[in-house]
């Protein structure tokens, strides 16, 4: 069911109002496991808008629902350009605003009045997630349009409260009132100006009148270079020798607004592509003034694109009035009747990041921190037999970036690369000289053979993802930064079990470490290694050298070992440990690395090195408690509980002085 465009707002009773969302119309067909999300031209949106499709599949109702898919900005306003450029969840928050219910549990509802259909719809809309009710407002069109204009919306929809649903009909019971002039157009060609470096200079567009395509203007604004490149890929297979328009347009004709246009050559296209434009006004001869490209409309058939002329509101509303003696239906007042901008819109949620890469394309190019990254072989299983792919790994690191980057920033990395997953050949890579792009920061080092080489340094999420894209499943940063390379940020006690050790012994050793630290009045922060052991970090604030740090760690490790002599050791040589758990303090040395907090590990289960609360370090804790599947949910719930490790740090001299006094 389609709405008729009218030229002005009105204040008649018996009408309800909704926001006109600037998106793609979509109908959800839900029949148990058979679920489809389709456009107006019956094109599947299942893959393209996969988060909405997943939400519809999980809805659990047996129904046919009508709505609009949109992308919201931080003010809750939908923009068509953002939707048209949407490739993955990183491009914005998709929402599916549902506004009508056509079938429910096998019953046809199209003959019921709108108010009753809305009542039933409100009862089944999920309370959370991207499926949202498009609010119905019992107000006046004049007030509502004024609010929509103030908020920068496309317009409003007016619907008769007692109207039935008539599929395929452009009904006068549904009216649309736009804030700005918009028109869907068919692309019939493009121009290229002499001397231009752009892919094309302008679009030549038209609308159908009967069976013929009539030219209505040349569009030269609204697209950037990237958009033009993607559009040219669509144009090339459609190039033809003859213009598709009823009359060939003169692309070099001067106008009073541009009396000396640059010379242009026209290229003609099969009239199959549809886009949407905004414009200032239509001239008397049917040409748009100041048109601007808004985005491609892949949900519309070219043959259905006609000139949309606004009907006179007074005539349409008068025709829709009930006959004499009939009582106008206004329906129940919506629970939401405030007309302030804040109450009309759902702002985009500020929760944990969504994924960067979509689930279907094997190769994807994304811009991160201003740098273009090409991600390849995305369906390759990095954890074979567990269904965890390279795509999953990259999405995890993109989502966890705000939490993990502070522990990687300005730190040289040792890349542990698994280009074919955890069961394939792996290797360490320190040197990235001549191998990394120019925007990657590098830190020099000199080898024993007299060679000058460079470590890679993580600066932001782009460099994190570049490293992960090389197959570096785990992140192994230095304990110090390139700003103070001889002064570690933290001191580490690494609990490294032998083949004969149990994880219960690891837990007991961690608890004893906590007891020793408490007696010293030194804070310590535990995390799982993601493998077989645990790590305990002590903040130092980059105030002490590696030698001083290691001596302090040795003292703590010795105290722990003395309390647990039966199954712990601080012996460096493996054969001298006699199968005991190693309380390792030697990790506190220059260029030594450990898996960072929140890092994935190349271990079965796709485990994560997860920061813990001390009360979680107890019997029953397991390595596989924290994996790629649940880590983000935990981090969102708990926040970065490891953050104090990056803080001011302990005063070792004061600690030792207090110890002497005791």
Sum this structure up briefly:
The protein has 662 residues and is of the alpha+beta class.
> Mean pLDDT score, rounded?
91
- The gyration radius over C-alpha positions equals 32 Å
For the sheet with most strands, the description reads: 6 strands, mixed
Q: Can you tell me the residue ranges where pLDDT is under 50 for at least 5 consecutive residues?
A: 323-342
Query: Helical region count?
Result: 14
The CATH topology of the largest domain comes to: D-amino Acid Aminotransferase, Chain A, domain 1
How far the N terminus sits from the C terminus, by CA atoms, comes to 84 Å
> What is the molecular shape?
elongated
CATH class term of the largest domain: Alpha Beta
State the fourth-level CATH superfamily of the largest domain.
DNA ligase/mRNA capping enzyme
| CATH architectural name of the largest domain | 2-Layer Sandwich
Helical content stands at 10-25%
Instruction: Give the number of DSSP strands.
Output: 33
Q: How much of the sequence is in beta strands?
A: 25-35%
Count the domains.
Answer: 4
Catalytic activity: ATP + (deoxyribonucleotide)n-3'-hydroxyl + 5'-phospho-(deoxyribonucleotide)m = (deoxyribonucleotide)n+m + AMP + diphosphate
Keywords: ATP-binding, DNA damage, DNA recombination, DNA repair, DNA-binding, DNA-directed DNA polymerase, Exonuclease, Hydrolase, Ligase, Manganese, Metal-binding, Multifunctional enzyme, Nuclease, Nucleotide-binding, Nucleotidyltransferase, Transferase
EC number: 6.5.1.1
GO molecular function: ATP binding; DNA binding; DNA ligase (ATP) activity; DNA-directed DNA polymerase activity; exonuclease activity; metal ion binding
